[in-house]
Amino acid sequence: MQINQGGIAGGDLNLKKYFLSKNLKKDLPASVVVFLVALPLCLGIALASGAPLFAGILTGIIGGIVVGIFSGSQLSVAGPAAGLTVIVLNAITKLGSYETFLLAVMIAGALQILLGIIKAGTIANYFPSPVIEGMLAAIGIILIMKQFPHAVGYDKDFEGDEGFSEAGEGNNTFSGIMSAFGKINYGAVIIAGVSLLLMIYWPKIKKVAMVPAPLLVVLAGIGLSALFAGTGLALQEKQMVNLPMVNNSGEFFALFKSPNFGAITNKEVWITAFTIAVVASLETLLSLEAVDKIDPIKRISPTNRELVAQGAGNLVSGLLGGLPMTAVIVRSSANVNAGARTKVSAVFHGLMLLLSLLFIPKLINQIPLSCLAAILLMTGYKLARISLFKHMWHKGLDQFIPFVVTIVAVVFTDLLIGVGIGMLVGIFYILRTNLRNPYFYQITTKGDKKTITLRLAEEVSFLNKAAIQVTLTSLPKGSDVIIDASNSRFIDPDVLEIIHNYKHNAYTKGIIVQLVDVKERYDVPPLKELVYKL
C-alpha cells in the first residue's frame, strides 16, 4: 500500500487538527488579515477585467471556501489573479457576452481537474529553487512599488495589478510612483504612516499582541478617516473600499449570472478555456511552490490535488458567475506572515468575504485603501528582505544570477514571462553543472603507456551527453581507456550510443577501449516502484 499524500504533504483527512486550540488561535487572526488583503484585490481585479465587481468578491469567496476545503495545501489561498486580467478582458470582448465567457471558465475548471488526474502537477518539481526565491522577492518589490501610490492617496491603478505596464499610453509602475508624488493626499499619508507604525511595533508589545495588528490598522484607518471628514485631510470616495451594496436577498441572488451553455460548440470558447486552464495551472503551481518555500513547518503540498481543487473552484465560479482563479502569492504570503498554521484561515477568509457582503457592506466601505496599502507594504518588505539577497549571494553565482534575473524580469514584465526568463537562466546553470559532473576521471601511467579510467556516475542522463563526448574526443592517442559503469544504475541511450561508437572507432587513434559493466540497455523502473510501500 502506498503512503497517502496527506499528513506532512498537507492533504490528509484528519479533521481534528483543524479544531485544535493551538492552531485556531493562529488561523483565525490570520484569516482576518487575509480577508482585509483579499477584499480590495478582488474588487480591483474584477474592475480591471471588465467584469462585475460582485464577480471578484464571488471568486474570492469560492477560492476561500471551495478550493480551501479540497486543497491539500495548508497555507495557499486562492482567488482572482492579476495575471489573468488581460486574458479575461480580451475574452469577454471576443466572446461577445459575459455569460459565454462563464462557460469557458467552467470548461477550464474541468480541464484543470483532468490535468490533476493525469498528474500534470509533477511539473512543479522542476522549478529551480533560485527562480522561485526570485519570484517571491519580485512580488515583494512589486507590492512595495504598486502600493506606495495607494498609501499616499493616488489610486489611479487598480488594486492587485502586478504588471509593469499600467492603463494609459506610456504609463508604467515608475510613472505611477512619480505621479503619486504630485498628487499626495496628506490624510492618506497620515493613515498609512500610523498603520505602518502599528504593523511594526504593535506585535512587539506582548500583552496586547494577541489582537492582530492588521485589525487594529483597519480600525485606526476608519477612525482617522472619520476624524478627517470635512477638513483639508478628508479622503475622497475613490480612496476607500467600494464593496457592492446588497439590501435584501432578492438583490443578492440577482447578482449571480449563469453560463451560456448554448455556446458549447463555439471554437473560441474552447480556445479561451484551454488558455485559462494552462495559465491558471502554471500560476497555481508557481504559487504553491513559493508558499512551501516560506512555510515555517516546511510542508510539501500535493500539486496534483491542488490542480483538482483549483479546477473544482473554477467549475463552481463559472457556474455562479465568477472569474477564473488561481492560488495567489500575495494572499498566500500574507497568510504565512500572519502566522497561519492550517487551511482553516483560507476557508474562514472566504466566509468573511461572504458575511461582509451580506451584513456589513457600509462598514467595509469606510476602510481607507491607504491603511490596506500599509498591510501590503509590510508583506512586500518581508518577501524582499535584504537578508534574502545576502543568503542567495552566499550560495554562489550559479544561484544568485538566476535569482536576480528572475527578479528583474518579473518586475519589468509580468509573473509568467519573468519566471520563464528566470527558468531559462536557471536551466543554463543546471546544464553547466551537469557538464562537469558525469564521471570520475583517473589517469595512471605504466611506463610510456597511459591508462585513463572514466568511472561513470550513478545516473548518466542526456544532459551529460555533451561532457562525455567532449572528454572522449580529447583523449590522447595511444592510450588505454577504461569506461567503468559498475556504479551506474541508469545511462541514457544517447550516451550509450556515444560510448559504443567511440569504442568502435577508437582503434583509428591507437586507443584500446575496455568497457566494464556497460549494458546494452538500461530500463527506468516504473514510478510506482519508487514510492515507499508499507
From TrEMBL:
Compartment(s): Membrane
Transmembrane segments: 28-47, 53-70, 101-118, 130-148, 184-203, 215-235, 269-291, 312-330, 342-360, 367-388, 400-431
KW Ligase (keyword) present: no
Keywords: Membrane, Transmembrane, Transmembrane helix
Principal location class: membrane
Residue stretches making up the STAS domain: 441-534
InterPro entries listed in its UniProt record: SLC26A/SulP_dom, SLC26A/SulP_fam, STAS_dom
A Pfam family of this chain: Sulfate_transp
Keyword Transmembrane: yes
Membrane topology type: Multi-pass membrane protein
Name by which UniProt lists this protein: SulP family inorganic anion transporter
Organism: Mucilaginibacter pankratovii
